[in-house]
Design brief:
This protein is an alpha+beta fold. It contains six helices and 22 strands. A hairpin with a 4-residue loop joins strand 20 and strand 21.
Length: 468
Amino acid sequence: MKALIAVLILGLGCSITVADSSVQSMSDQQLRDVVLELMNEVDTLRSSQDEDWLTERRAEEIRGLVSDVLADADTRASLQSSGATSGYDKGFFVGTADGNWLIKLNTQIQIRWLFNHARDQSDSYGFEIRRAKLNFTGHVVDPSWKYKVSVVSNREAVEFQDKRLNANLFVEDIYINKVFDSGAYVRVGQFLAPFTREELVSSTRQLAVERSVVNNAFTWTRTQGIMVGFQEDNWKIEAMYNQGPNNLNSSATASISDRQGLNVRGEILFGEESEWSLFKGFNAKSTDGRMAFLLGGAFGWFNGSGFNNVQEYGNADASRSIAFTVDGTLVGDGWQLFSYFVWSDGKDRYLSPARDTQDSWGVVVQGGLLVTDDIEVFARYSLGEIPNAVTDGGLPSDSLNVLTVGGNWFVNNNIKFTLDWGYAFNPVTDGGNAPTSADYSSSGTGWRPDIGDEDGQWLLRAQMQLVF
C-alpha cells in the first residue's frame, strides 16, 4: 500500500518529493498527513483551472483514489489496534494477538475416476467427488480448549421411496477437547473411535486411493460419545464410551442410540529417534536417516438393546460384539511398512442355539517406497476370513484375497495424484445375508458384489487430491 502511495505522489508531479524507500519507512499517521496535503494541492489546482496538465475529470479521479487510500489506512489502523493476526500456516487462520482465540480453515477435495470389471456384469466406470470437506479447528478462551467442526458433502444423490434426494451437507466431526497440563485430555462429541489405525490416519494421508476392504468390514468409523486420553513423549492411551460403530448425527431418543460401546487403544514408540510426527500418515518420506517403529493395539465392545437393534459389523449382523486389533508401523528414510491384524466375534439371536456367535478376522500388509523425491510406488495385500460361516442361502466364499499396486505423485505440498489397480482372487461379497454378513464391497472402495462364485474382479482407480 505504501508503494502505491509513492507512485501516486510521484505521478502527480507535485512539490512534495518523496522517494519510495522513505515512504516504506513512514508511519500510518505520516502517510495520512502527506495524502491530506495532496488533497489540498488538488483543490488549489482545480480552483486555478489550470487545465494544461490537470483537467476536471482527472482531478475527480485522483480525489477518489486518495479517498480509497485513506479508507485503507483506517482499516489497517483498526486491525493493528485490535491486535488481530491472520495469515496461512498449514491452513488459513485468524486469531488474537495474545493467542487465546484462534480459528483455522482447511479444505480437502478428492476427485476420483474408477473402472470396475466384474464377470457376468457390465463394466462400471465414471467420475465422482469422493470427498469435499471444510474443516474448522482452533481454540477458545485459551489454547487448552480446542474444537473441530467438519462440514462434508455427500458423494451422490440417492433414490428413496421413488424420489431422488439431492446431495446435501452434513456434519462429520464435531467435538470439544480439553487438554490439561499433565498431558491428559477429555474429548466429547462426534469423531473417529480409537480402533483400527488404518481408519485413524486421515484420508488425506492414505497410501492408496482408498482404505482397504478389511478396514471397510472392521472399522468403527465415527460415533458419538466421550473420550479420555493421556499422551507422553513415547506412549499414549485413549478410552472412549460411545454408541457403537458408525453412529453419526443420531438423536438421543433414536432406536440406533440404544447401543452402547467401549473402545480402548494404546500406542508406544520404539527407537531413540522416534517421534509422533513421523507417523501422521502412510506415505513414505525423507526422515534424514532416522528409523522409528510404532506399535498399537485396541479393543472394542458394543451391545444393542431391543429386538431389532443389530449392527452390521465384522462380517456379522450382531446385536453384541467384541473385537481387537494389533498393528505395527516401521518408518525409514524414503520408505514405510505397515501391517495389522483385526478380529471380531458377533453374537446374533438369529443363529442356531448350538452356536450363537460368528467370528471373523482380517490382515493387511502394505508398504511404500520413494523412487524420486516426489514419486512413490506401493503395494498392499488384504485378506479377510469368515471361519465356519453360517448364512441364509450361503456366501459364494468365506474368504477374500485382494492385491493392490500403484503409485503417488506429490505435485507439491498441497496436491497429490494417486493411481492404483486392484485384483480380487475370490468373489467379493457384501453385507445383507443374516446372520453372516461379509461386508467387503462398498461405493467408497469401488468394489462391487460378485454374482455367484465368480472371481477375478479388478478395479482401476485414479484420484487427484487438493488440501490446504
